[in-house]
Design brief:
InterPro entries: Cro/C1-type_HTH (IPR001387), Lambda_DNA-bd_dom_sf (IPR010982), Tscrpt_reg_HTH_MJ1545_prd (IPR017271). This is HTH cro/C1-type domain-containing protein. It holds the Pfam family HTH_3. With 239 residues, this protein is α/β, with parallel strands linked by helices. 51% of the residues lie in helices and 18% in strands. The chain has a six-stranded mixed beta sheet with strand order 1-3-4-5-6-2. The longest helix has 17 residues.
Length: 239
């Protein structure tokens, strides 16, 4: 979204909060007010009518898609930057603490979506659940240190793993059974587009697989050798 890493971190968090909210319009309004932006100003930045913004925020209009949400967030941050960027910097400091680099090993959003079939190929994956749903579109991925994420992240922090959209793959590394990541996803109530398990799994956990089946969540076991190789394959082979 931005070349600057700080702006990208803030943009991903805000876009993720909007896209996975049960009331995206209310979330847009809340963030607009945090950035002290009027509806007319946002509408002008997006080259649309102010009534469209009003309809989104009131729920009269269907929730905007990923691309519109990206444009809205870009408008927030670019407008703030022209005024000194104080709001963006304040949120960057907050989000930096929430998603430390030792937990999030890699995070990427795609310009063009891929799907679970291609993801499974890239991670050298074995399908554990819902193979029939691998054609779902994926708009990004987040690679996570599984044990640290489950133990250290609060529910609010966990939301940040979804980046711009929940239609992404969450890839948990250093996994031994696969149960904990699936339990964490179920408890937090936000289902990603796919989950990849990577680690020293000899026998997939039956409860973890059952949770994935119940959530209609494609579950993939990566057989790629080593985390560095996994990250390299993801970076080089996906759009």
């Amino acid at each position: 979204m931005f070349e600057d890493a700080t702006k990208n971190r803030v943009a991903r968090w805000i876009a993720g909060d909007i896209s996975i909210s049960s009331n995206p319009g209310a979330s847009i309004k809340r963030w607009r007010k945090k950035f002290e932006m009027k509806q007319n100003t946002l509408a002008e930045k997006l080259d649309i009518s102010p009534s469209v913004i009003s309809d989104y925020e009131s729920g009269r209009r269907k929730s905007p898609g990923v691309q519109i949400i990206k444009k809205i967030v870009r408008a927030f941050i670019e407008t703030d930057e022209k005024s000194g960027g104080q709001v963006t910097r304040a949120f960057a400091d907050r989000f930096e603490a929430h998603l430390p680099p030792e937990v999030v090993l890699g995070m990427r959003d795609f310009e063009n979506p891929t799907d679970g079939n291609e993801l499974a190929r890239v991670v050298e994956g074995k399908i554990l659940a819902n193979e029939n749903l691998l054609n779902k579109k994926l708009f990004g991925y987040t690679v996570i240190d599984g044990p640290k994420a489950v133990i250290e992240l609060s529910s609010e922090d966990f939301t940040g793993l979804y980046g711009v959209t929940s239609e992404r793959a969450l890839i948990f590394t250093r996994v031994t059974t696969g149960r904990s990541p699936l339990v964490a996803i179920k408890v937090r109530g936000i289902t990603p587009g796919a989950v990849v398990l990577h680690g020293s799994i000899t026998e997939p956990d039956e409860i973890g697989v059952k949770i994935a089946e119940d959530l209609k969540l494609p579950l993939i076991l990566s057989e790629t050798s080593g985390i560095n190789k996994l990250l390299e394959n993801l970076q080089e082979s996906l759009p």
